[in-house]
Design brief:
By secondary structure, the protein is an alpha/beta fold. The chain has 23 helices and 19 strands. Keywords: ATP-binding, Nucleotide-binding.
Amino acid sequence: MIKSLKDRLIEVLINNKLITKEDLQKAVDKQKEKSGSLSKILIESGLVKEKDLMVVWGQELDVPLITLSRYNIDKELVKLIPERIAKSYNLIAISKFGNRLSVAMSDPLNILAADDIRVLTGLEIDPVIATENDIKEAINASYGSEASNISELAERATGDEVTLVEIEAEKIDIDEMAQESGQAPIVKLVDLIIGEAIKRRASDIHIEPEEKDLRIRYRVDGVLHDVFKIPKKNQNAVIARLKIMSKLDITESRLPQDGRFKIRMEKKEIDFRVSVLPITYGGKIVLRALDKANLSIGLDQLGFLPEPLRVFQEAIKKPFGMILITGPTGSGKSTTLYSIVSRLNTPERNIITIEDPVEYQVDGITQVHVLPEIGLTFANGLKSILRQSPDVIMIGEIRDSETADIAVKAALTGELVFSTLHTNDATGAVTRLIDMGVEPFLVASSVIMVGAQRLCRKICPHCKEEYDIPKSVLERVGIVIPRGEKKPFYHGKGCAKCNKTGYLGRIAILEAVAITDEIREMITSRASSDKIKKFATEKQGMKLLRDNGITQFINGVTTLEEVLRITSEE
């Protein structure tokens, strides 16, 4: 016998030990007495938490569970459903794509509600799940009061004077907080963690619960360093403080969460992107520092060698086409793309980005944050962007065949498109697009440049000293010093300025390939990436990542160990 959906949901609740059979029977008996929804009785009786029930529903119905407070709901869109209907069924419209309307519902099993809205709006309904309280708050915030209600309120007004106070979004001034002696210890501790990270130039702060303590690590110049440990008893308070700062749900401990906050320190504002991941001993939090000062430094200040920089700059001058930057996570791809986009950001250009998530918020640029849970994917977002008459499009990452196909066609129809891919080298980006299902002739016609990027630590200038490297070691990596010539090599001895690492700051090294007519012919004939790479190095003079790194080593900018660490042998 096929089980009904209601029976399946009850079975999941029992199997997950969210409710006992005895308690369930009590709720069923109560339902027979008073009628009404079984789920509502379970929640009101305190037998099941509303959030737990929503999670079970989402899993069984394959319907996404969302937190409405994190959505900026269009008030005009909301009015597609009359307020009376919305309150009656406890639901609210949150987005519309074509003829499909996404509706947040506290009871996704209410088929009558979905049918009524379908008839009322003439649109197909895509339900998503939200808690009853979230929906009620959204309804109250989104539907304006009727004129008759305003008149009624005016008659009851007491005449008390009300002064409007401007409230800005929360910004945490660490310098000011440090001077205030009356702050709670946990607030001071979190401020210390963030302040120390900024002083040490950390790009990421890792807050990691362990069995007996809370470990704090900073990623400085791409490498993680243990900083200190916090007693386990303070763990929950520290995590709660960071969640409050990021406007996250402090009661949610079983699902990943993403947020952000902004601080001001030493007259500089820094955004932090926050990721919370449930792990064995609690919630691991990673804070990514996003300093807007990095965006305006320009391509020539990123450390590229003259030849790859020339290839890059010539590609940017083209009126349309696609430029791809490849590399692993943390290789500086986004910073490079933002540097280009910031340079192109003039009143004459309509620049639109689509990202997951938006990393830097830049004035003058339209930025779209993808939300797959409501259908706003890279592909769907990109289709809408093309109807906004863009001149320049930046796609955070090409992840699937549909996004790749739309991006390529956009580059062919007059837009300058920038994006990233995860491949090991530059020429691998071309074959990756073809593997995604894009026709080779379309790739050949649209792509104008591909580049592979890595970030390389620089020798600390404060403790830089000359040292000897055995000739055999140099020859093994292809460095030949002419007989009788003395070439000095350098490394960092380690000092207080670089925290005893010998390195201070990073530069980008780039492997850049201009897509010439010869390479276009090779792409169209489905030549392998190795053949394209061989042609680019032998005929066009392209330097590989390792070659660029070794040039920086010979120039005394970095060390041989660092070059070998971040590049692979060809």
